[in-house]
Write a structure and sequence with these properties.
Blueprint: E1 12-21, H1 25-36, E2 41-44, E3 61-62, H2 76-86, E4 99-100, H3 103-117, E5 120-122, E6 125-133, E7 136-144, E8 147-158, H4 164-168, E9 173-175, E10 189-192, H5 196-201, H6 211-217, E11 229-234, E12 237-241, H7 253-277, E13 285-289, E14 299-301, E15 321-325, H8 338-350, E16 359-362, E17 374-376, H9 385-391, H10 394-412, H11 423-433
Parallel strand pairs: 1-2, 1-8, 2-5, 8-17
Antiparallel strand pairs: 3-4, 6-7, 7-8, 9-14, 10-12, 10-13, 11-12, 15-16
Helix pairs in contact: 1-3, 1-10
The structure holds flavin-adenine dinucleotide.
Length: about 450
Amino acid sequence: MTTTTYSIDIPIRDQVDVLVCGGGPAGVAAALAAAGQGATVHIIENSNCLGGMGTIGLVPAFMPFTDGVNFLAGGIGRLVLDRLEAAGGVWPSERGTTVPIKPEVLKRVYDDLCEEAGVAVTFHARAIDVQRQAGRIERVICAAKSGLFAIAAKAVVDGTGDGDICAHAGAPFDLGDEHGAMMPTTLCSIWAEVDWQAYEAAGSPSVEGRIEEALADGVLSVEDRHLPGMWPTAARIGGGNVGHCFACDGTDERSLTAAYIWGRRSMREYEQYYRRYIPGHEQVELVATAALMGVRETRRIRGDYQLNSADFRPDSSFPDEIGRFSYPIDIHLAKPDKASFDEHKRLFTGGRLGRGEHYGIPYRILTPQGLDNVLVAGRCVSTDRSMQASIRVMPGCFITGQAAGIAAAMVAAGCPDIRAVDITDLQARLRRLGAFLP
Ligand SMILES: Cc1cc2nc3c(=O)[nH]c(=O)nc-3n(C[C@H](O)[C@H](O)[C@H](O)COP(=O)(O)OP(=O)(O)OC[C@H]3O[C@@H](n4cnc5c(N)ncnc54)[C@H](O)[C@@H]3O)c2cc1C
């Protein structure tokens, strides 16, 4: 490949205590928690709203905030949920404790929460590089409509979902399985004219139940037997987690481009599938696909501890615990074949904790190796693949996000680096915020 060197002076647009890159659930939780500690905070967000997958990605529901007994995502998770409910942004759930989302309401809730907390937000700005001095990031370089600019910060939280900032700063990471294969992505969607009453009257049959028939009939062209489905998000509206884009690398825009094209194309097949085989969906119509690809898995930043499948048990606990969680191991199949589908089902049903059970989350999964003033939060924290597939859901991201935000504020306030954070103090601050730390 031929290369070129490009060098220009750019403005340092802001200087803050805590810079949060990426405004998804983890980034927003980090920003609100840091601001609550008195830090000045700026969020740099690539898209046009906060919320990441749950808003611009059209992921239709929050997975459970609870283990069936305890509210695990206490603190910012509770705050977001309460505000969303108060704003009418939650459709009553028929599916246990998942929380169907009205994405437009959730966008406004995040806007309001950040404004009230005094968090500065810039949309349409992507963090593309860092300037570091030894293990410290001093400035993050951003690319936006107006050009390039930098933001200087005492501490940085990587909430990009992909671990972009840690990777730019040179932290080690893992990508996918031993062959580099990652979970498929999904272009989530909104559907109109779903007759939920007719669907329920028919016994709410599994939407996966007719896939074999649809493959035989040529309605579906890819042997993908895993169909999470649609959640009712308003009367006659479905939020769709429908279809997969296989072999998509969410850290490569060329791969993402192909996935968007396939994702949009494949929705025509699923429209036919639902109309033909699923009761109550005879008139269903695709309204829109998401503006942001639903990426489940990319980099897992290597931190001072790697949460691993042996920790997925109710009695796991850590001295530096920042929260507890319980969502099952949900590794979507990397290949569309029967064997992978069966393996997903085995893991999803087998890798599950009981009611009232939860595993511990240590602070060290937020501290990237080799970096001193950077914390990682959300789906790219330091885990093996199994645990990533559990902690990646949004309530888990609130938990790691708020801890990263408080720790970042402590570093900005004078704590020498992320490893010098007084854990007892961090835990006390988390408890005051409402975190679940029994
Ligand atoms: C298809 C799909 C279905 C899912 N279903 C559910 C579900 O039903 N319930 C549930 O709870 N969870 C679900 N999840 C998981 C969950 O939505 C995500 O794992 C979670 O949103 C991750 O949160 P995050 O904050 O780490 O990252 P994200 O939500 O991905 O947010 C990252 C944000 O950072 C921004 N960003 C990225 N790179 C940069 C950069 N370099 N500079 C600036 N901004 C940047 C992005 O635009 C985005 O807004 C699903 C995920 C997918 C993909």
